[in-house]
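### Sample
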Amino acid sequence: MRRTSRVVVAGAALGVVLSGAPAASADPGFGEYVALGDSWAADASLTQATDEFVPLGCAQSRGDYAKQVAAALAVPVFRDATCGGATTKNLTAPQSVPQGLNPPQFDRLTPTTDLVTLEIGGNDAALAATVQSCLTTDPAATPCLDALVVDGVDQMSLNILAAEPTVIAAVQGVRERSPRARILLIDYLQGVGIGPGCFPTVPISDPDADWLGRKLIELDTMLARVADATGAEFVDTYRTSAGHDGCQPPGTRWVEGLVPWSTTPPGPAVPFHPNQLGADHQARSVLAALGR
């Protein structure tokens, strides 16, 4: 399959909002950067969606953290394969999306790739889709707990454990294709905390909200284990995003709630996904991990 390359010379050339990232580095230290992952890596956006690297149906933001990192480092060659809805299968198999087909994400890797960011696993565990099934008009209802915790067995915990070997294989697949690459495994922002939620602002009951918060921690803990097992570098965006979950007011929250409207940037948003403030935090976290 034909490989495509994009050259990044400055943030302005990409139309990237660099509100949260440092200025471009005179000595990037990296020659070829590839970004891989799902909608939280694409920082899925309706107002800033771009088809520069992937089909428009991937909802990849022109201000996602990978583009910010590439611009801040002035990386000469950059490819952003991230796509909403991606699972680890879509690293090696094409992903059908509205308005197109995203080729296997690994197709963007080459033997000369020397920087890779990877954020994946939430869709493999079905945690992202499960959030929608927790919505209710009854503050006493617990649709997620009722469906997913039966006789003391938590199906979501099992899903997360089952996703672990697939994420391990994903990191190993990156290393096989790009043996020189520095691999950063990114976790998921604190979109929901532990404890009571904010019903009805986000119409999820307190017990289900607390359960979701704990499952998110389990998912991020699994990713940390994968990084440890594979020698990838773990980038913790969760602990540093406390107090910026979807229950917080506009301007404070880094992850949107149910109401599909954002102030950063103004306009329709993808529910339960990072807004631009969240993308900026992800970019700062990656750059900090790189010592920038």
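The chain has a mean pLDDT of 90. This sample (GDSL-like lipase/acylhydrolase family protein) is used throughout the tutorial notebook.
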